[in-house]
Amino acid sequence: MAAPALVALAHGSRDARSSATITALVDEVKALRPDLKIEKAFLELAKPGFQTVIDRLVRGGHDEIVVVPLLLNEAFHAKVDVPEAIAEATTRHPGLKIRATDVLGLEARFLEVLDERMREALKSARVRELDALVLAAAGSSDPLANQAVARLARVWGTHHKLPVTAAYAAAAPPATGEAVRAFRAEGRRHIAVASLFLAPGRLLDHATELALEAGAVAVSEPLGAHPEIARTILARYAVGAVELVPV
């Protein structure tokens, strides 16, 4: 009996860097599980689209699929867009079983990835001293999603024994520039910004620009194609595959 196929479903962006990062991340997953059928797909703005990938898998004989949403928060895309896309696919393919897993979310172990990206940024900027950190995320109209970022920021700050503020690129205050300026108003001068984004894109570019204009000494790259993220995708898949097994 073949294992269910895995579809790693990202939101999608017109920015080619974003698609390239998702491709590299999915390649990391494939390297860990070469025995699985693994495909990337996008909800919008990039190819291949979700329905195109599902059609291809069905033509290839797959009748069980686990979808892992490559999203860092449980907001609109996870609650509305993903279920709607899956409903459309199962309507078009009667008998097809699709299980959507939890989103990637904000795992505490992702802080290790943040630290790695931050060390790279500090080395590049030749910065050796920090007295404050900003955790920059996309932001959401869902307050619970923003609160999850703020909680992660507190955990990160406790680990490093530094003050940390969560900031958002859209939909909620403060913006990265505001967060940096607030720390500078307290007399802090060595403020670095960690990018809690899965991939590059317009929002991250804007957040980075605002942070540097406000005086940040370094801004890290997004989480990207890291083995820890790949392992989390496979952990989500494992749960979804079990849930497809008839009781």
The unreliable regions are none
Distance between the termini: 16 Å
- Rounded radius of gyration (Å): 19 Å
Strand content: 15-25%
Shape label: elongated
The pLDDT mean sits at: 95
Find the structural class using helix and strand composition. alpha/beta
Task: Please report the number of helical segments.
Answer: 8
- What is the chain-wise order of helices and strands? EHEHEHEHEHEHEHEH
Question: What is the makeup of the main sheet?
Answer: 4 strands, parallel
Question: Explain this structure to me?
Answer:
With 247 residues, the chain is α/β, with parallel strands linked by helices. The chain contains 8 helices and 8 strands. The chain has helices at residues 16-32, 50-59, 76-92, 110-125, 143-160, 176-185, 202-214, 227-244; strands at residues 5-10, 38-42, 64-69, 97-100, 132-137, 164-168, 191-196, 218-219. The strands form 2 sheets. A 4-stranded parallel sheet has the order 2-1-3-4, sandwiched between helices. Strands 6-5-7-8 form a 4-stranded parallel sheet, sandwiched between helices. The protein starts with a strand and ends with a helix. The relative contact order is 0.17. The model has no long low-confidence stretch (mean pLDDT 95).
